Amino acid sequence: xxxxxxxxxxxxxxxxxRRMSNDEFLALGxxxxxxxxxDRTGIRYRYVAGPDETLTxxxxxxxxxxxxxxxxxxxxxxxxILGTASADHLLPSTAVEIQAALGATRAAAxxxxxxxxxxxxxxxxxxxxxxxxxxxxxxVIGGELLTRIxxxxxxxxxxxxxxxxxxxxLKRSTKGRGILSAYMRSDGTLANxxxxxxxxxxxxxxxxxxxxxxxxxxxxxREVFKNAVRSMxxxxxxxxxxxxxxxxxxxxxxxxQANVRIIEATAKHxxxxxxxxxxxxxxxGNTSAASIPIALDEAVxxxxxxxxxxVLFVAFGxxxxxxxxxxxx
Length: 329
Ligand code: UT7
Fold this sequence. Notes:
By secondary structure, the chain is α/β, with parallel strands linked by helices. The protein has helices spanning 24-27, 34-41, 55-70, 94-102, 118-131, 155-158, 207-212, 221-242, 260-270, 281-284, 291-301, and strands at 6-14, 18-21, 45-48, 79-83, 108-112, 138-145, 163-172, 178-186, 194-195, 218-219, 252-255, 310-317, 321-328.
């Protein structure tokens, strides 16, 4: 069998109601400022979920928009995959809660844990299910409520992350559209550089763990930065090689949105000028698994993904996990 098997038929995204600016961290007593955050990360705003919002609610909203764009009903969905590191409950998966909210009665549903690479991993798993003939229509969501799992007293992480969900409907490929190449890797030897040290089954939560914040995200920013640039640059090369394409064939690069400096370094390595790179980290912060599908939907709505356009996606996240994909849209 030969690619492409699976094409993107519709996209959508949703964010919580509350938008938070950099200046608002001052009111929380954190030693940080708008200038530092903008200079070092490019971030100006992020969305923060309120008490009435859940990962299920924003992911379901994103899913409905993507299904509407694709002209697909809930009854047609064969599989729902949610890439997330911030599930609503430890058991069961948030994907089954979305399945219930959508009324997708025929769909299998599961969460996929690959941190910021969750959507990209999910797309590749979905492609495999379609290639094997086990599914025709798959919903792949990247969704996070990261503001619920960060330490609001830690300036190293709190200014970086935001909440949101992006959804993509995959259908059988027609007219040569779809995933042309795909690449995924991981390196668990570096897990300690970006993780939640405690609070899982190995070290269940105690009042001490909660008090010291070791159940929240901890990150060695500088090390993560270096690894992100190296791995995303390599992943771009791999996906281009896989598609037998060069940088000149790419109409748009949609990278994971963690830091504008990482995005610029990745684009430079790939030989793709910044005019062909989609950046929205300034308005959303790092939404982990949601970042690429949110950016894709914004790019589609902005008219930057023309019919037949070739898009290069690249992601990197905790694990470490990383990967890339070339898609004819
Ligand atoms: O989604 C995938 C995973 N995440 C990422 O890809 C993020 C990767 N890392 C980064 O984006 C960057 O490393 C950061 C934005 C996190 C940090 O930028 P940096 O240029 O690497 O700064 P740094 O960690 O080297 O810190 C520089 C200084 C430190 O002070 P000293 O030790 O030089 O006195 C930090 O304590 O900046 C300080 N700092 C802050 N200052 C003001 C750290 N956070 C803040 C802050 N406000 N929010």
